[in-house]
Design brief:
This protein is an alpha/beta fold and 423 residues long. The protein folds into two domains: 232 residues, Type I PLP-dependent aspartate aminotransferase-like (Major domain) (Aspartate Aminotransferase, domain 2, 3-Layer(aba) Sandwich); 127 residues, Alpha-Beta Complex (Aspartate Aminotransferase, domain 1). It has 16 helices and 15 strands. The strands form four sheets. Strands 4-10-9-8-7-5-6 form a seven-stranded mixed sheet, sandwiched between helices. The longest helix has 23 residues. The protein is globular and about 60 Å long. The mean pLDDT is 97. It comes from Streptomyces purpureus.
């Protein structure tokens, strides 16, 4: 057996098989161009916080109101995360305990709706999320989900149609936000509709929380009753979630998270969230957020110049959704070929997609990870060229071309070390 790597000595000694997989993943993340918009690189500090002895402690309840003793330090950790979230986003109340985005959204339903109530969100094939009332999700099985979409001619939300649907169906909860939305979310327009039909407006900003924190996307805080977000993606924190709200909803949301859905919070994740929020409050993070958007717009322009069909014609944020039908390549085929070329994307449905979700027409890409590595708008022409060559190779079955791209990608990535990865 080879000498254990210096950065994982204990793991390598205790479980060399697992350690080898971790090292392999580090190398994969280092050498490839990661374009999945929901992924990012966290800092060494976030990684360290995620692996502390806070892992050892049970802490059911909230600071000052726990069901276990020995919380002297844990209460301070959670309070630190809460206060940083409130300061960064300018909210009255924050709950940092949800295990991930889906449980956070489930807590919203538990707080504001009863089983069988009507809820409203963007349809999954149009760019929404499973937990916004889609049929295969518990939220679509336990509640009566109605969905809005986008216009076929523009790829944009038609707020006249949203208003008409909301007034007809009278949902208890309206979700705005999603997983494949390349344009700015008009929170004010959604808030007006929610007020008119008497619904609680929930802004799911999981994808754009970092952009909001960095001032690169408008904030939902003046408009939404509740804000749900993950803490990774553009926020560059650990895999966790937060709920934020106005003071009037604080007690209902807290009760929904605990004891409604969860037991003890993951204190090591809470600590890592606190670190990420501290990092996001620094001036350098504002530069990062704006660079993410600048890179995405530059990449979109370069792809358009190469004849790619982008949903809505471009992007306002970190995300680009492209329909590969004009390129005569299914999304899944393209995604797998690009992966062999060292370019990591995900295949994705596009609005009004005639193909099935597991074999859709599109791919979804984004710029959070490459921006974390220091790539700039000057590199986006190269990235677009690689994608263009990779999609062409996917259509023709040219594995040699894919191997060539992979070598070029690895060469560029070596010049831009990733945060949090071993040197």
């Amino acid at each position: 057996m080879s000498t254990p790597p210096a950065h994982h000595p204990a793991l390598s000694t205790a479980d060399p098989e697992l350690a080898a997989l971790v090292v392999a993943e580090e190398q994969l993340q280092s050498r490839t161009l990661r374009l999945i918009p929901s992924e990012n690189y966290v800092s060494h500090a976030v990684l360290e916080a995620s692996g502390t002895v806070l892992q050892n402690k049970y802490s059911e309840g909230y600071p000052g109101r726990r069901y276990y003793e020995g919380q002297q330090n844990i209460d301070q950790v959670e309070t630190l995360a809460v206060e940083r979230a409130k300061s960064l986003f300018g909210v009255d109340h924050a709950n940092v305990q949800p295990y991930s985005g889906s449980p956070a959204n489930l807590a919203v339903y538990l707080a504001f709706a009863e089983p069988g109530d009507t809820v409203m969100g963007m349809a999954l094939p149009m760019g929404g999320h499973l937990t916004h009332g889609w049929g295969v999700s518990a939220t679509g099985k336990w509640f009566r989900g109605v969905q809005y979409g986008v216009r076929q001619d523009t790829g944009l939300i038609d707020f006249d149609e949203v208003r008409e649907l909301a007034l007809k169906e009278r949902p208890k909860v309206i979700f705005c936000g999603g997983t494949a939305l390349p344009r700015t979310i008009d929170f004010a327009a959604f808030a007006e509709i929610a007020r008119e039909c008497g619904a609680v407006l929930v802004a799911d900003v999981a994808h754009i929380a970092g952009l909001i924190a960095g001032g690169a996307h408008p904030s939902p805080v003046p408009h939404a009753d509740v804000i749900s977000t993950t803490t990774h993606k553009t926020l560059r924190g650990p895999r966790g979630a937060m709920l934020m709200c106005r003071e009037e909803h604080a007690k209902a949301l807290d009760k929904a998270v605990f004891p409604g859905l969860q037991g003890g919070p993951h204190n090591q994740t809470t600590a890592a969230i606190a670190v990420a929020l501290h990092e996001a409050a620094q001036p350098s993070f504002r530069d990062y957020a704006h660079s993410v958007v600048a890179n995405a717009k530059a990449l979109a322009d370069a792809l358009l110049a190469r004849g790619f069909d982008l949903v809505s014609g471009g992007t306002d944020n970190h995300l680009i959704l492209m329909d590969l039908t004009p390129k005569d390549v299914p999304g899944k085929v393209a995604a797998k070929a690009l992966d062999r070329a060292g370019i990591v994307v995900n295949y994705n449905t596009v609005p009004f997609d005639p193909r099935k979700p597991f074999d859709p027409s599109g791919i979804r890409i984004g710029t959070p990870s490459l921006t974390s590595r220091g790539l700039t708008t000057a590199h986006m022409e190269t990235v677009a060229e690689w994608i263009d060559r990779g999609v062409t190779a996917a259509r023709t079955g040219d594995e040699e071309a894919l191997a060539g791209i992979r070598a070029e990608v690895a060469d560029l990535m070596s010049a831009f070390p990733a945060p949090g990865l071993p040197a």
